Amino acid sequence: MPNSENHSGGLSKISNSRHYSFSVVVVLFIFSVAAVLPLLFSMMSIHLFRQRNVIMTVDRVAAKLSFEDIHNDYDFVQFSEGLKAMQKPPYIVFYDSSNLDIFLNHICNLEFIPNALSRLVAISFDTNSHMILQEKYPKIPSVVVDLDPIKESLEETYENRRYIIYQLVLLTRTRVCASLALRGINYWAMQQDSLWIENFESMNIEDRYSDQYMLFDTVGNEQATAMITFNFQLPEYKRMHGWICGSTYFVRGNPTTHQFFMQVDAFMRSHQSPDSSIMTYLCGHRNYKCHRLPRWIISSSDYFRGTRETTPVMIQVDSDQKEETKMELFQRANFIFRHDNGTCDRRAVHKLRDAVRLAFPEKLKTLGQNMYAEGLLTRLYYAYKHIFNVDRYNNKVFLTVHYTLI
Ligand SMILES: *[C@@H]1O[C@H](CO)[C@@H](O)[C@H](O)[C@H]1NC(C)=O
């Protein structure tokens, strides 16, 4: 064999290089097929088309009310100056005509909590609700960031219109947050569907965590401390430890938090993700100095699915039934603090602690039921990811939670 190699040295070189170029072609072919296949699949996938359309529409319509438009708006600048002059960080509630009733109800909740109402300020997404609030509560500082022209520019039949508007509202809230942070204002972003059971104001949470830039609420419920019930954290949240809820959060206005919300903005225009998962993801970077508040201070609706041993200071109430309005839900749970004639009901606020404990008895029946049990494959998948340190804390997975909504 070595002999023949010596003799036909030239030939073998030629055939070698032919082999070489052939294998290059094969490898190139395999690579291009591998590269083109996902493209083909994505072109065939209607869902991805829809998703792309949603993301592009959100980006397009959001450009009609840019960060600069909001930041430099005369009324908004005046409003911001007012916030800056406040002695304590304001509680900002964002609302529109669709949840004005819940907001008015919330104001009645705050009315009986010392020093709470004086810190409340309001940002409306339509002129109509703003006018009504001003008329009823002229002392509450308020401003309009009008989204009606953008909503009207999207015809009623536009695919996924509701979801696009939902994203637009959250994106606008993010821009407001970025703007206030740029002006160096410290503030709480809050929601009108939160119940104040105790005096949250007097706790001075923002002073207790003075070295943190942002404080967030989280989803899930409190783990029971007793050994027997150690497994009570809702199973679907086990993989989402520290997942931000995003209904109540504190922001210390500075260049870093401004940059944080500009990042959320950019993310929301290029991904189909809710702001809460994006904030969770970005908070993975320790320089943002995010801190998660314990659930005995602020809890999401998941409180109602737990043992209810400790009543949180504040609970945000989500509605999960489509056929019921939020007001009807609040009625059902005795969370109404406002009479029909517009006066506030002190007794209802005082009885709130009991109301919260007794609310939604149907949810207690599902206690301990493992509705979201994970299969062996899923568990193996997560074990694999954990071992190889791929998205170890599942922060990236959270970014996909809304994919099934469109
Ligand atoms: C408003 O309605 C409540 C309950 O019906 C009543 O107790 C209260 O006196 C009314 N207030 C005014 C000012 O009419």
From TrEMBL:
Transmembrane segments: 20-41
Domain of life, source organism: Eukaryota
Domain Nucleotide-diphospho-sugar transferase: 116-329
Pfam families (UniProt xref): Nucleotid_trans (PF03407)
Keyword annotations of the record: Membrane, Transmembrane, Transmembrane helix
InterPro entries noted in UniProt: Nucl-diP-sugar_transferase
PANTHER family assigned: GROUNDHOG (HEDGEHOG-LIKE FAMILY)-RELATED (PTHR31967), NUCLEOTIDE-DIPHOSPHO-SUGAR TRANSFERASE DOMAIN-CONTAINING PROTEIN (PTHR31967:SF24)
Protein name as annotated: Nucleotide-diphospho-sugar transferase domain-containing protein
Upper taxonomic lineage: Eukaryota, Metazoa, Ecdysozoa, Nematoda, Chromadorea
